[in-house]
Amino acid sequence: MPTDLASVYRAEYGRCVATLTRLLGDISLAEEAVQDAFTIAVQKWAELPPNPGAWIVTTARNRAIDRIRRESTREARHVQALLLHRGDDEPEEVGPVRDDQLRLIFTCCHPSLSPLAQTALTLRLLGGLEVPQIARAYLVPEATISQRIVRAKKKIRDARIPYRVPTEAELPARLPPVLTVLYLIFNEGYTASRGELVRADLCREALRLARELASLMPDEPEVLGLLALLLLSEARRPARVGPSGELVTLAEQDRSLWDRAMIAEGHAIVRECLRRNRPGPYQIQAAINAVHTDGPTTDWRQVLALYDQLLQFTPTPIVALNRAVAVAEVHGPEAALAVVEELELPGYHLLPATKAELLVRLGRVDAARAAYAEAVALAGNDAERAFLQKRLAELS
Length: 396
Prior knowledge:
Layout: H1 3-24, H2 27-44, H3 52-71, H4 74-84, H5 100-108, H6 115-125, H7 131-138, H8 142-158, H9 171-190, H10 200-216, H11 221-236, H12 260-276, H13 281-292, H14 300-313, H15 317-331, H16 333-340, H17 350-361, H18 365-378, H19 382-395
Helix pairs in contact: 1-2, 1-3, 1-5, 2-3, 3-4, 6-8, 6-9, 7-8, 9-10, 9-11, 10-11, 11-12, 11-13, 12-13, 13-14, 14-15, 15-16, 16-17, 17-18, 18-19
Domain RNA polymerase sigma-70 region: 9-72
GO molecular function: DNA binding; sigma factor activity
Family: Belongs to the sigma-70 factor family. ECF subfamily.
């Protein structure tokens, strides 16, 4: 796939699938039609059209019509034709969710699907993430994710789960997986599992959808917490990549490159969440990021206190690993290393990478080399791997 077309695929895939799902009422058919349209684009595009996304949607819609005419019964053709040929001036479905992609997220997060199936399917359809990327996000085998996606699509088809706007009463029950999906889409953009360090298109799309969700559910503190978290993270994104695409750590970032308007907006939302006094994990993560972006240096004692609170809500090894970084700054590397050595995160490169940094600070160079080598072998992102290789080379 040409570079320009690959960029279009990353930027437009989720939007096109969401639009076609609304038109067709069938997720699998929509995904197949969009994939067919991109295959045609590879053959026909000598250069990008003025509106690539619209071209893909139109082509996919036409391909779907052809497929329906060939394969469907007369009754099914009549129903689908009504959907496909609906006039542009026909009123939209009335309901609380008006954004196609946000509607598809809520649809995929139907309570009849398992939590992993909900988020895996949505990441595939909306984020355009491939199975290896989703598996990395969950630290599970790729085969597990593939099976869950296939089963989820089959469940949606066999149970006739409709693509429709959830009612106001249904929204809160579907909220946790929706928040998870937006968080994971942003994370894949912020630190891509393959290729370059950052996928800005995913970061921007996750932030846009978080804003839509906050407008839809302004009284949900965790929705506001997620929005603040994404704002404060996105504000620092320009400083995370050096001139040659290299990774720049928080301590080494040029803070003048941070987006101060986003930081101010994120801080205001964090203060609003504190006034509501209904804490949750996204609000606490937002508060941690607020501390990182408040002033010229980080108050690590405050960060550690927040991680202690977060660990009570989310007692996972990844939260414990992130907390260990704060422990090192407050209580020293030996105390942090004791925490890290108790953790098990198979295949997660940041565990040996963190361990290596702590071993270097303790002067245990041989052990640090081994830990860095393990981290290099596990890292999938080019920039992260290069960063770890550089650290390893410095020890040699």
